[in-house]
Amino acid sequence: MSKQKYLDAAKRAMEWHAEYRKDLRNCRFDTIAVHGLYSMQEALDFNQGSIIEPMYLSTSQAYRDSDEMELALGYQIPTWCYSRIGNPSMYYLEGLLALLEEYHSGFEASCLATSSGMSAIRTATEEFLHPDPQDPKRPRNFVATSQVYGGTYQQFSVRRDAEDKVEWRKVINSNDLAEWESLIDENTRFLYGEMPSNPTLAFFDLEKVAALAHKHGIPMIVDATVASPALMRPLAHGADIVIQSVTKSLCTSGFGVAGAIIAKKNIPCKLDNDALKADFCAYLKMLPARDNGPNLTPQQCILIINDVRTLRMKMDAMSRNTMKVAQFLEQHKGIEKVNYLGLESCPLHTVASKYMFLVDAEHDELYGKPVNRYGHLMSFEVKGGAQATRDVFDAFTRIWRATDLGRIKSVATIPAISTHSQQGEEGRKLAAIPSTLIRLSVGAEHPDDVIRDLDCALGVLDGKPVVHTTPEYSAGGASSALLRNPV
Ligand SMILES: *Cc1c(COP(=O)(O)O)cnc(C)c1O
Fold first, then answer.
1. DSSP string, 164-205
2. In the predicted model, is pLDDT for residue 399 greater than 70?
3. pLDDT in tens, 305-357
4. Which of 204, 209, 236, 309 is least surrounded by Cβ atoms within 10 Å, i.e. has the fewest?
5. Ligand 1 binding pocket includes 413 (Cβ within 6 Å)
6. Does the predicted model carry a pTM greater than 0.90?
7. Residue 257, SS3?
8. Is the CB of 223 inside a 6 Å radius of any atom of ligand 1?
9. Ligand 1 pocket mutation pick from 159, 222, 225 by most atoms within 8 angstroms of CB
10. Residue 486: what pLDDT?
11. Among the residues of 261-356, which ranges form H helices?
12. Distance CA 248, CA 257 (A)
């Protein structure tokens, strides 16, 4: 077939897809989450009618002839080529996440899925931090909140600041606009903030900070992992690029690790790179990510797509449960302090209430009006020191002791000895992580049962013994053991 015929067919297909996407963008959040970009027409024509998105484990795609191959590898016709660059399952996941982040905002976003949240942060920030080609010795810096996830703290402080000599200028109080501004100079490449932050639930007024970034001609990057697009969509509030550790809220079932970058079109940035500015994620996908290879497997993409379909209802239920648990802990005599954005006693409650809403609550029969929801993540400080904190933690029976969050099951960790152990005492001070802090991510169990577990565990502070019994065999192994040893 001639090249022109391929190009004409590609044009018709792109028009069809654009039309389909336009229609989908008018649907409600749940509809987009359930269907994504996968249509019945595509299923019938290209996927044996399967009602679920394809999962092709193939490394690569075959072409009809050399003309088609050349056009595909030149990115002139729709293609996925090779699974390091793209894959049909990856396409549907990326399309889905872009649609959810841009939801009813009036602008279009695009997405690059990555192998982890950390690789999303690395891939998104790296492009802005390259040395200036005209003046390679010129200093480089970025301004970011000090209250960030422990892995982010390590990436920024060790990999960037110490190893690459790219200065991380830390914002200690992210609600102090003057502090942000005082740290920016002509060598600042971007502003970065995590909100709500893990594990201390720091939060800032994004619209104001994004306006500051734009005044200086640089992009605003926001890690919104804890909220997920069901509760907050930073692109609508001035952010240019959103980071998701897809591992967390987006994949509540806990089937694996993944990340995503979602960006607006035409982002501000001082680099002389038009393609990067025009469509950041498409640029990453076609060039740097192609060369660096931080991609995701098709199996992982399908597992995530499956979880995202029910995102909104899960984030609603988990938020309501967390509120109940936070209220219980707040009045408990063994607790020093509770960090939860939903509590009126929380100093950041007002600013969080400006941004965190259950999407479409006003179109929900149950609510019929905008409803604030503050997510599944909270943390609390136990009275009586580090050992008392460990004793309470060790007494949980229903809440799983695991370094994880966003799970459908309640999970808890002590950040000082886990997520935030590497950054040392001083780093923890900057990030406001005392050794008496327990991070709790509340799941979708009945909240009364989570509260009962906490109440029991806090009993150790009054000297009540907690007796753990451990079975000698797992129940899963029991039947085979019985079969081998018939009585
Ligand atoms: C977990 C987490 C990350 C890192 O994500 P991974 O998928 O574990 O690599 C980044 N940011 C936040 C806020 C997180 O909670």
1. H--EEEEESSTT-HHHHHHH--TTEEEEEEESSPTTT-----
2. yes
3. 999 999 999 999 999 999 999 999 999 999 999 999 999 999 999 999 999 99
4. 309
5. no
6. yes
7. coil
8. yes
9. 225
10. 52
11. 274-278, 280-286, 288-292, 298-308, 311-330, 349-355
12. 8
Query: Which CATH topology does 2-128+219-308 take?
Result: Aspartate Aminotransferase; domain 2 (3.40.640)
Instruction: Answer whether the bond into residue 219 is a cis peptide, omega within 30°.
Output: no
In the structure, what pLDDT confidence band is assigned to residue 477 with cuts at 50, 70 and 90? Answer: low
How far is the centre of ligand 1, averaged over its atoms, from the C-alpha of 258 (Å)?
Answer: 9
pLDDT digits (tens, 9 = 90+) for 344-385: 999 999 999 999 999 999 999 999 999 999 999 999 999 999
311-462, which class in CATH? alpha beta
3-state helix, strand, coil in the chain (%, to 5): 45, 15, 45
CA-nearest of 116, 110, 80, 73 to 95 is 110
What does the domain layout of the chain look like in residue ranges? Answer: 2-128+219-308, 311-462
Which atom of ligand 1 is closest in space to residue 118's alpha carbon?
9
Nearest CA to ligand 1 atom 2: 245
Q: Is 248 in the pocket of ligand 1 (CB under 6 A)?
A: yes
Cα of 149 from ligand 1 centre, angstroms? 7
Helix/strand/coil for 392:
helix
Cis preceding linkage at 199, omega within 30: yes
Asked if the model's pLDDT at residue 481 lies above 60, the reply is no
The answer, yes or no, to whether any atom of ligand 1 lies below 6 A from the CB of 257, is yes
Residues 193, 144: Cα–Cα separation, whole Å = 6
Q: In this structure, is the dihedral angle defined by the CA atoms of residues 48, 49, 52 and 54, taken in order, positive or negative? A: positive
Mean of pLDDT values over 452-480: 79
